[in-house]
Amino acid sequence: MIPFIMAGALFALAAARIPSLSRNGKDAVFMAGLFAGASCLLLAAPVYLAIDPVLGGVNLAKLVLNSFMIVGLWYLRTAVLSAVSPDPDTRPCWLRILPLSLALVLQTVFFVLAGLVSTTTAWEGDRSNRAATSLFALMMLCFIAWSCGHIAWACFRFVPRMRQSFRVGFSMVGLGCVFSVIVMTDMMLGELKGPFPSLDLDLGVPVREFELAAVVLVGIGLTIPPVAGHITRRRAARRLDRTVVKVSEIRDKALEGADPERTLKTTEHAAPQERLHRMIVEIWDAELSAGRDRSVLTPEDRDYMLLVEADFDTGKTY
After folding, report:
1. Distance between start and end Cα atoms, the chain
2. Which residue among 76, 97, 100, 258 is buried most deeply as judged by most CB within 10 Å?
3. How much is the average pLDDT of 82-100?
């Protein structure tokens, strides 16, 4: 049941990023949710047992599962570092993707070396090469731990510099990645017991519950900033509409009886910002033409117009 919940949360995260994907043509968080969600879906035994026979019945679904999770974590790491770090990564592209390339290549090599067996959800099973079997599992666990550790470090390092919605969201992302690092560490210790039975290291953490907590925290954390931004933009749009209405009233008063040639040409489909800018120019032009003694504007009208003009470039309108 938990794999389905985790997959649902990740697919919901991807769905929430569709507007951003439509606007920009690409979105790393969308790709992270898509790949990681598909990986979690394959964690469910019924799904795994249904998919693997289609891929040849030699547990190739396990390689796909691990590869999807690695790629999903790579996209997540890329998205978070891009969002929180003030300094862009200027390294050559091949160097930036080197960890991802090595992880995918090495785990494929270890998968083949471990030996191909019939479909089973018990990965260890009866493998001809126990060392390669453990290395295959450790490859993904190490990559996830490294990615999540890097994300958590970046989040907690830059959180104090963020505005409120980003601070809350990326604090949750960082905390979720801490849970993930704990889970990966516990699972790595478990894998080491195969080649080294004498090792008795076990963190004893509830793995499934921690995994679910990590997915939920990261998913909600990444959703908070865009949702807060959408709400802020809607409020700004309503505020701009109110400003346009009030400035329009002042404009009508200022241009009453003025020469029609002093009005600027516009279209009925002009954006609110364009209409507002046009009306500001018309009002001050009418004021300049009328002179102080013949001005029809009240001191309150002038104070309001000065406030609107001062904040026009910042997008803050009253």
Report:
1. 51
2. 76
3. 85
